Amino acid sequence: MDMARVFHMNAGTGETSYANNSLLQKKVLSLVKPIREEAISSFYREKLPRSLAIADLGCSCGPNTLFVTYELIEIVEMLSRDLNHESPEYIIFLNDLPGNDFNNIFKSLECFKQKLRGQVADDGIDQCYITGVPSSFYGRILPACSLHFVHSSSSLHWLSQVPEGAENNKGNICITKTSPLNVQNAYCHQFQRDFSLFLKCRAEELGEGGRMVITLLGRSSEDLSCDKSCYIWELLAKALNEMVLEGIIEENQMNSFNFPFYTPSSSELKLEIEKEGSFTLNHLEIFELSWKAACGDDEELNNNNNNDGYKVAQLMRAGTESMLVNHFGEAIIDNVFHRYQHILADRMSKEKTMFFYITLSSTKTT
Ligand SMILES: C[S@@+](CC[C@H](N)C(=O)[O-])C[C@H]1O[C@@H](n2cnc3c(N)ncnc32)[C@H](O)[C@@H]1O
Which residues of 200-216 are buried (b: 16+ CB within 10 A; e: fewer)? Predict the structure, then answer.
């Protein structure tokens, strides 16, 4: 599967769009705010750059896209006032794969700048230059030493490709407890290659002392097929396998499909950072979020299992539909997610189901 051509979150603002189904990722962004705040503040106090260049990698499209940019500008503006220092100009790079709905982001920029001007910086419009960078972050996307701050949230668990050698992962669509050892190893090696390339490219793009804060889905144990990280995929595979049994999907179609998705443990991440050698890890934090975090704050609805199943299915649909359509065709999609919704509702009513996240804050040193 050619990720750059195929993969994108669901566009627009409709019922199945990422914009409408990204509450979980928004909660993740909010939880990581203190770590970003520490990183940008200590960088800014130390360097006081005239222009501050920030990249958000895997920015997607929707209410989360400019959330971090707004927050970082707000923090730097407050610091500038406290330090009695002239505000910097902001150069913001919003990166995602080319299939991302960049047009929707561009259409919202004037409104965003007006909000900045109204609420954060009086002359915000002139001082904030925002550019889209449609390219894979598993490669160089910006000139050498052009960045001060790199941010990425809920994106780096996506690999650059489905690993080669994962062909015998029959009945599964990702690593699970029943995946053969060679499949687990193929995923693990693909992650190591991708993550070390990501670090190398960011090290080239960041100036010395530049900061990077990344958050991704991870694994709580060293066991590659530990329950928590693969359960949500096992349940999606269950829906697809039901459809194989009913003759709606062909078995060999199911057996030849895998998602390019991997959840590393914190020690795997630390090891890759040490091996690559350009970054000092300042802080690593792990946190868990219930699957219900995808369901919003409406208590009445949240105690409704069907609504929980629906919201989590929609969350997964917004992120995976492009790849499923590419492999299985459009006709089966509503059916898959209808089944998935009921499977999820059932499991969520009986078990405590959690996502496990890892945040790393690091400084470019060499
Ligand atoms: C779940 S969304 C997260 C969006 C946003 N950061 C947030 O927190 O809501 C993951 C994004 O990462 C992007 N992505 C995945 N692999 C990528 C790659 N290799 N290069 C650039 N973007 C990528 C996807 O296209 C998607 O928009």
Answer: ebbbbbbeeebbbbbbb
Residue 146's domain comprises 3-364
Q: Is the CB of 112 under 6 A from ligand 1?
A: no
Ligand 1 contacts CB of residue 148 (under 6 A): no
**CA-wise closest residue to 216 among 137, 146, 141:** 137
Structure tokens at 322: 């492009």
What spacing in Å lies between the alpha carbon of 60 and ligand 1's midpoint?
5
DSSP state of 162: P
- Amino acid symbol at 165: G
In sequence order, the 6+-apart residues with CB closer than 8 A to the CB of 297 are none
**Which one-letter amino acid corresponds to residue 114?**
Q
Pocket probe mutation, ligand 1, options 21, 68, 97, max atoms within 8 Å of Cβ:
97
CATH number (domain holding residue 154): 3.40.50.150
* The model's pTM: 0.95
Sheet holding 89-96, edge to edge: 128-134, 89-96, 51-57, 147-153, 206-217, 354-364, 279-290
Query: Residue 296 has what pLDDT?
Result: 77
Nearest CA among 228, 234, 248, 255 for reference residue 340: 234
74-93 pLDDT, tens digit each: 999 999 999 999 999 999 99
- Tokens encoding 221: 């144990």
Atom number, ligand 1, closest to the C-alpha of residue 8 = 25
Mean pLDDT of the chain: 93
Q: How many domains does the chain have?
A: 1
Nearest CA to ligand 1 atom 18: 136
The token duo for 172 is: 């599964």
